[in-house]
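Q: Structure tokens for this one, please.
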Amino acid sequence: MRQDVRDPFTAALERARQEAYPPGEYVGQESFLSAGEIRRLADHARIGPGLAVLDVCCGVAGPGRLITAERGCRYLGVDSSPSALRIARELAGDLPCRFEQGSVPPLPDEGFDVVLLLETMLAFPDRPAVLAEAARVLGPGGRFACTLEEGRPLTPDERAAMPDADTVWLVELGEVTAMLRNAGLTVVWQEDWTAAHAGTATALLGSFRAHEADIGNRVGARAVDELIAAHELWVDWLGSGRVRKLAMVAEKR
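A: Here is the predicted structure, written as tokens:
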């Protein structure tokens, strides 16, 4: 079963995800981000009332829904998965959130104050195209806020061990900084979240193992085996320093 068909996975993983995060830190995210980190990134991106925010690869939009509810921004989430967007719309309820289905790039032809790319930078082998699109839809002084899995590209053995390795394209920080600069974006804030995300990955791995039988009954044995294998690798890579996890905000000058 493919994980871009979100309905069964969202239901199957919900309890395990809730148990993995400290109280108040789980808000429907499908990643290692905590609610506190989402808020911190939103602070540095200066997201506030009335600002236009584009959330690229929003998934079921846990972070986007939190930001919209607390900041009063005008939110648009874009994702390629129709099932993820259907869940996002249902969970958004009366929040002023819009959602569009589409592959990235390109991005919607609207003007935005902030573009978010959370936990999905590594999914794009052609990052310059994505960053150029982000810069294109930002107005002067607009902010691009992202998380980044930073490290040397995967070796053939690492790629063979990682499920869905076609969505894992690591890149070193200097390359990303140069790509941002070439797109007209200047880094104005950066923070290392590696230790925190290693802890979150460890907690999620433990919770998925604890609920392995139930998850497997819902999504199949192969899917749960791949979920656990992927989290084992992230625990190892983040814990050993093979991969660093960074949060960044870049501004369009």
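A few notes: Residues 33-197+243-252 form a domain with the Rossmann fold fold (CATH 3.40.50.150). The mean pLDDT is 96.
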